[in-house]
Amino acid sequence: MRRAVALVGLFGILGAGMSLVLLPATGTVAAPKAERTYLIPAGDGYGVADCIASKSECGQIVADAWCESQGHRVATAYGLAAPEDFTGSTPRQASATPAEQPLAITCGG
Q: How far apart (Å, rounded) are the C-alpha atoms in residues 63 and 60?
């Protein structure tokens, strides 16, 4: 009885191994995520506003890191958000000082 169970197990393992060998060798690639723009409060507590708002060298690094944390590849655009991006639902344009104006990061891929 033990031999029969051992043989069934052995054939099962061999069959599973053969099925992996015989599978097509095509690589699968995940579909890229659609481009998306994120609005981030300037006073988020992380101190990224200076880099992104001034579009300095660290801005691309910070924006890319943000996009990667959201499941995207790279940032395609970043900077201060346009007033219509964060006040689109109000009838009149709100005035936000640059210190409190949200940041926009557009991620692609």
A: 5
